[in-house]
Amino acid sequence: MEKLEKLYEGKAKQLFATDDPEVLWVEYKNSATAGDGEKKEDFEGKGRLNNLITTLIFGLLAKRGIPSHLVKRVNDTAQLVKKMDMFPLEIVLRNTAAGHFSSRLGVEEGIDFDEPVLEYFLKNDDLHDPFVNDDDLVVLHVCTREDLAEIAPLAKRINEALIDIFTKIDVKLVDFKIEMGRTSDGTLLLADEITPDSCRLWDQRDKSGKVEHLDKDLFRRDLGDIIPAYEEIERRLAALADAEGVTLD
């Protein structure tokens, strides 16, 4: 597969065309950002780790009956994905109070919910990705009621599968952000990435009761180096993938 012209560059990834019109080339970057991009730093090896982690998680999800846009990993920092018509939407699932939810609603971090909370945020940098509801999305023509009737159940299935995956590697899935889109034939698929950049992951192997972050909150909150945490997540996921017969390629 030949990588052609660059189509898009975001905070953490670059997107390129290929010689197959239905396949795109994704290149993961070493940069980390926080606070709407106001805080930014490069970490050597971060792109490689996020590429590996996403590949492993998408493979483990496929094993659980949840397909994604991933075609295959092509090298340490790149993967091939299906070309998608993406919804300009961040889909957030929360299992435990933390981050924006806690600050917005005055809920103490660490409180587990009786059931998962599904939230939507409009992808718009100028508006700082505002929180929106179903009606907002419909009147703004971001998606239809029919789209939402597919998106919400799929998001909850992904949450259940991810809880199973992370529980098996002694990690608590606090919350996560995903994106979805449709293929050329209209199939709704999980897309983008699932990494410690887009999840809150708390280590459950430390029995001291102190929260041990294995995610980007280490960078957001100046708690420490993200690379050892990302390496630990990759190592545990790789062991689980090996046990379940999931390969990287």
Automatic annotation (TrEMBL):
Report the SUPFAM superfamilies cross-referenced here.
SAICAR synthase-like (SSF56104)
Could you identify this protein by its name? Phosphoribosylaminoimidazole-succinocarboxamide synthase
Q: Where does this protein come from, organism-wise?
A: Bifidobacterium oedipodis
Molecular-function GO term, any one? ATP binding
The family line of this record is:
Belongs to the SAICAR synthetase family.
Q: What class of enzyme is it?
A: ligase
**NCBIfam families of this UniProt entry?**
purC
InterPro entries documented for this protein: SAICAR_synt/ADE2_N, SAICAR_synt_PurC, SAICAR_synth, SAICAR_synthetase
> Pathway it belongs to?
Purine metabolism; IMP biosynthesis via de novo pathway; 5-amino-1-(5-phospho-D-ribosyl)imidazole-4-carboxamide from 5-amino-1-(5-phospho-D-ribosyl)imidazole-4-carboxylate: step 1/2
Keyword Ligase belongs to the record? yes
- Source organism superkingdom: Bacteria
- Keywords, ordered alphabetically: ATP-binding, Ligase, Nucleotide-binding, Purine biosynthesis
Chain ranges of the SAICAR synthetase/ADE2 N-terminal domain: 6-236
Q: Which GO terms describe its biological process?
A: 'de novo' IMP biosynthetic process; cobalamin biosynthetic process
